[in-house]
Specification:
By secondary structure, the chain is of the alpha+beta class. Helix content is about 35%, strand content about 20%. The protein has a three-stranded mixed β-sheet, covered by helices on one side. A hairpin with a 5-residue loop joins strand 1 and strand 2. The protein starts with a helix and ends in a 5-residue tail after the last strand. The relative contact order is 0.12.
Amino acid sequence: MPTLEHNALVEMFREHPELAPRFLATLFHVEVPPHASVAVVESSLDQLIPVEFRADLVLELRGATGTLVLAIVIEVQRDVDPDKKFSWPAYVAVVRARKRCGTIVLVVARQGDE
């Protein structure tokens, strides 16, 4: 159950959404793109029409005691696919949430023709 502090912080950003890009830029030195507005939008992350993401291979690295220490998502890329930059972060998020460990996407691609 969310605490009063949690709800207060959420409300702070709900009431003043312009704080988020300002925090990213000033506190974390993230290059925020020029923008004209900041809007609060639907925060539910479920999907009415489920999208299936299927990685080529997922590896688990375990320590000596069997504890899962890292998951590696292997993706083999034979051609340039601009859509992959949108699906690979989803792979990381889903595998990380399921396995409860750090996750990395390793893209194996052939060297371009020179």
